[in-house]
Amino acid sequence: MTEARARDTIPSPAGPAAEPAATVPAGRRPAPAASGPAGGGSQGLAWAAGVTAGLSVAGSVVGLVRDQTIAHLFGAGAESDAFLVAWTLPEVAATVLIEDAMALLMVPAFSAALARGGAVPGLVRGTLPRLLAVLGVLTAVLVAGAPWVVRVLAPGLADPAEAVACTRLTAVSVLTFGLAGYLSAALRAHRRFVPPAAIYVAYNAGIIATLLALHGRYGVLAAAAGVAVGGCLMVAVQLPSAIAELRGHRVPAGAPRAPHRTLALALLAPVVLFTLSRQAQVLVERFFAAPLPAGAISHLNYAQKVAQLPMALSVMICTVTFPAVSRALAEGDREKARERVERDLTLACVVVLTGTAYVIACAPQLIYVLFQRGEFSADDTAATAAVMRVYALGLLGQSLVGTLIRPFFSAGRPTWYPAASMAAGLLVTAVADAAAVGPWGAYGIAAGNALGITVTAGLLLRGLGGHSIAVRVRTIAPGLTRTLLAAAVATAAGWLVSTRVPGAFAATAACGLAVPAVFTLAAFAVRVPELPYLLATVTRKGRR
Predict the structure, then answer these.
(1) Could you report how far apart the first and last alpha carbons of the chain are, in Å?
(2) Which of 150, 177, 191, 459 has the most crowded Cβ, counting Cβ within 10 A?
(3) In whole angstroms, what is the distance from residue 330 CA to residue 85 CA?
(4) Would you say residue 225 has pLDDT above 50?
């Protein structure tokens, strides 16, 4: 799921190289510092990373409140299933237009334009009008073709009428998410990380407010209307900062209006195909879940939402550092880019495996605390928790894919390898789902998802050196193995705590303390790399 799926944290101690203050090319202002009081350099990027992490966590928390509100009002039944089918459109739009394709295309493009000087206004003139025109037409087509969209997404849905009505409202997100993603890419390239990190807070708050105001009259349609409102708020929180940044660039005399090369099909197609293939995992999942008993789609949705929170936290690392990698490659410093990517991979694994241990250890208690109220029953809690434990087996693969894909496209050169890897993983998912949905239902679908994304992660890790940055896989692999061992110990300890502590709230809190503590001790015992740096960074942030 994507409301963010999202989403920017620990910089290297060296940070990005500071831009020389000496010569500023004509038409270009000096390179912007990371937004915040710390200015540029290592401290500026660290400040931005801390604020971004805080806002990203806040967006995830508000997203959980949104899910809790939907579960409380509609439970896990036909109404929630109808909305979740319609929610497939904003999920795909968020992945393509905010988190992956747009960022992978436009962050390197804006970074290269800033490195060249004087090219940012021309880039905007050559890309933004065309983007808005294409997205406007696509939105209109989706609104008109909503019945066909629902039939394709969920052919086994018993009553598709409500899903069609919801889809017509959520289709608006294609336009608003596209503009929000473009503004996010521009701001991140300018090292303005705070407004992009706030978009999911605004988005989820808009859904909650609209849902509470209108659900009594319009039912689940209020949630779909909230998606449309939230998309507009995503644009609103970024627009003032984006306008201020873009106005700071002087337009060189006689600047051409020709489209920028970023829109060339050779560069655009591999990124979009990879992104669509990745999001197609959700489409495959709902295709196989639609004929199952009512509530199966909802159980899969809630399980995935909670399980993916550790993945979102881990991917925050490379969101902040992605512009630094792109700038390093644009300046020809491949060694700096390689070191940054290797550190990102190690840190992402530490974060996601700690979260995975927690999710597996206390899944029933966690789902109880988050959702079991109103129309969400004890049976829904048990089914969702069991599915979530299966989903969690693929979290490492999800995190590695989110971290590895950025170096492939950082240099702004077309490569089809990520799309081919994702297609292979998608094929594995579809075959596994088809084989497992009969005997195991939703659990088989979740297992297919975990298997497919893990295959993709392995292919991307194997092929990174030959297609982008020569990451030393043999150097990283022992550290990853040690991290897995520490996570296994932490999972066992958390499971023991969850079974011994009475009460779901108390058990959830106890696991929240025990799992990170045991993971840290085990990680030190087996010498997990980067853990001392990560703890030092967190301690430094806490003192500030």
Answers:
(1) 34
(2) 177
(3) 41
(4) yes
- Write down the residue that tokens 């039912």 correspond to: 219
Measure Cα distances from 488 to 353, 361, 536 in Å: 9, 10, 24
Residues 2 and 102: their CA atoms lie apart, in Å, by: 15
Residues 6+ apart with CB under 8 A from 121: 246, 249, 250, 251, 252, 255
The b/e string for 394-412 (b: 16+ C-beta within 10 A; e otherwise) is bbbbbbbbbbbbbbbbbbb
| Three-state DSSP class for residue 251 | coil
Query: Which among 376, 391, 229 has a CA at the least distance from the CA of 307?
Result: 391
Using an 8 Å Cβ cutoff, are 337 and 325 in contact? yes
Radius of gyration of the chain (CA): 22
Lowest-pLDDT choice from 2-6, 158-162, 261-265, 434-438: 2-6
DSSP, res 76:
S
Alpha-carbon gap, residue 531 to 533, rounded angstroms: 5
| Contact of 306 with 119, CB cutoff 8 Å | no
DSSP category for residue 471: -
Tokens of 132: 């808005």
Please give the structure tokens belonging to residue 309.
Answer: 């929170």
CA distance 108 to 400: 20
pLDDT value of position 96: 82
Beta strand residue intervals within 324-481, DSSP E: none
Q: Which two tokens stand for residue 168?
A: 């017509």
Total number of residues shown for the chain: 544
User: Are 163 and 157 within 8 A, CB to CB?
Assistant: yes
Average pLDDT over the chain reads: 80
Taking the C-alpha atoms of residue 261 and residue 414, their distance in angstroms, rounded to an integer, is 11
Residue range 407-442, pLDDT digits in tens: 777 655 667 888 899 999 999 999 999 999 999 999
Distance (Å, rounded) from C-alpha 37 to C-alpha 544?
A: 13
Distances (CA, A) of 218 to 88, 173, 425: 20, 20, 40
Q: What is the dihedral of CA 1, 307, 191, 197, to 10 degrees?
A: 70
- Close Cβ partners of 289 (under 8 Å, ≥ 6 residues apart): 296, 297, 300, 437, 442, 445
Q: CA-CA distance, 289 to 446, in Å (whole number)?
A: 10
Of 233, 230, 232, 214, nearest to 222 (Cα)? 214
Separation between Cα atoms, residue 450 and residue 350, nearest integer Å: 19
The type of residue at 107 is V
* Spatial contact of 446 and 383, defined as CB atoms under 8 Å apart: no
Taking a C-beta distance cutoff of 8 angstroms, is the pair 176, 231 a contact? yes
Task: Give the residue carrying structure tokens 């959980």.
Answer: 64
Structural tokens at position 164: 């069609």
Give tens-digit pLDDT for 347-358.
888 889 999 999
